Amino acid sequence: MTQRDCEAELQQEVAIRATATGDFTESAFADVVTGYLEDGGTIDGYEACAYKHRGMRIDGFFFNLDDEATLDLFIVDYRGKQIIETLTRTESEQAFKRAETFFEKSCTARFVDGMEVSHPAYSLALAILEQADRIRRVRFILLTDAALSERVKEIPPKREAGREWAYRIWDINALCNLVTTGEPEEIVVDFREMFGQPLPCLPANQGSEKVTSYLAVIPGNWLGAIYDRFGGRLLEQNVRTFLQTRGKVNKGIQRTILEDPEMFFAFNNGISTTAAEAEVDVNRGIGHIKRLRKLQIVNGGQTTASIFNVTKRFKDANLENIRVQMKLSVIQEEAVDEVVPKISEYANTQNRISDADLFSNHPFHVRIEGIAGRLLAPAVGGSQIQTYWFYERARGQYLNQQAYLTRAKKNEFQLKFPRSQVITKTDLARVINTFERRPDIVSRGAQKNFAEFATFIGGREAWKAKQENINDAWYRDAVSKTIAFHAAERLIQEAPWYAQGYRANIVTYSIALIVEKIAGAKRELNFERIWQRQDIGDGLRSEILCVGEKVLQRIVAAAQENNVSNVTEWCKRQACWADLKNTIVVNVLPESELISAGDAQDGRRTARGEQKITNEAEAQIHVVNRTATYWKRMLEWGERSPAITPTDIDFLRLASQITARKVPSGPQSLRLIQIEDKAIAEGFKM
Predict the structure, then answer these.
(1) Which domain holds residue 668?
(2) DSSP 8-state assignment for residue 376
(3) 591 CB contacts (<8 Å, ≥6 apart)?
(4) pTM of structure
(5) Tell me: the pLDDT tens digits for 159-217?
(6) Which are the contacts of 639, defined by CB distance < 8 A and separation ≥ 6?
(7) Residue 81 falls within a domain, yes or no?
(8) How many structural domains are present in the chain?
(9) Positive or negative CA dihedral for 365, 433, 63, 105?
């Protein structure tokens, strides 16, 4: 995909988002872009909050005080021009200055007291005032569809009133790279540039075509500085998910750093890292790593994040004597996507990170993508054309599938898969957790919500036990829930009582309250009705508006009653959910839009049975396609391996005798796939 194509696609995505939600295009641009940034691990979340006044401006924010003592402030510069304009140094400096001024003034009671209390920015300013002592770092992030002037290089951080101020510009070029690759800019660590010298190492495994390995001992202050520069992007996605659920600071690691730094190397297991390319000089068996490209931490993310956070929280923390063991695996570019997830999964077995294994190739995502690609949505609105919903199991997939199509083929693709019918992994997590009545979790931001969603799906072993639940019926329900969620976003956005703030919180809490009310009456929403109409009913539409207004009023009042300065922070608490359930009255929906819980359960039971048959058929196809020769090789290997049980041997012997008339049954084939997975994990070469 060319740069121009990407620019046009991004503009179209913004326009569709604005139409779907009723947002201004500037707000829609921020929503679209921050979605990509969240998936890439560059930011933890985004809360819209537009404020413009006398040399001040912000468009959004996100607090991360618990983990990193950080506040992100966003400024949006959306121009929407067909011909891309240039963002000059003066313009970028002015944009950052307005956000800086807002932060500085928010640290003064006089400014906060003079703000309009009903404005969402008041809640943010009050939170800054009350939490000022906890904020150690402010990141000013400028989002723009202009192209950054080549004269503007990296903007260095600075310290103001004991805090670090960091700056980041996401211009159209950086955004297009993110959209098309699903990743931010490459992580390149040049040890000579950052620390004035290379990192000594010992060559380890040098015989593999795919992987070259090294062992090193990296100083703690070096590791902290690298994490400071690249943040969560340094952590491989599986590790990021784990840290979101378990917390980034380990108290034992913290205690060792502060009280016994010389013993850190002895007490800590170190980190495992990967890179796509390493510039290493080796002389007489001793290596020196000068530069690493695409560095990722696949095990030891908590160690790394803890070292960084301790330096931010404790000014007297000294990392000079901290040493961390580091294993580096340099993997050929074409093998990165295959090998890195496996290294992460196997390296982290001790921490059970694999239980949250939600890579894009996790069987859950593969199945949802497969169902989405074959299940036509009903034609609506008089149209004779049936379309598909597109499940994006990897960010940028929707655009990448069009990258090399002719214009005619691209138009055909978009007619078949409308952009307005794209569902990302984080979208799905937000929708499902909302309907599971977990609005407090959803309100914590995309990354933390996705981590909780990971526990719903589970790792590969847990998936085997529940995979029959994820079927065509589950998918249709998920799409129907997505339709309802998007409808609620637009309804709230256009409501006369809505004042441009807390929409994400209002939407998730309103839907959760309605679902809670319906469940109490032993009913469920009729998702099949929504699927057939590709729209929600008038009763649900009316109740979303009614409940939404009550939710807005109550979350603002309850935050004040509980001495929580920022409303969005209050919405992240279980106490907020408990309060709303106790105070908000929800009306009963028309019976035509509901279905009894018993009938819904019967439908799911039938769907599970159908999926079981499908799973067994797919397993039989897989086993037969492997061929009898393959299974005979595994049988011979298994007879020498202690990991393969006598019962496993019996199944392998059966598979090794496959003929056109003699094929293992469905259940037998499922068991053979489990044996195959175990054999490969134990070293069987395919």
Answers:
(1) 619-681
(2) P
(3) none
(4) 0.72
(5) 888 888 999 999 999 998 888 776 667 789 999 999 999 999 999 876 667 789 999 99
(6) 649
(7) yes
(8) 4
(9) positive
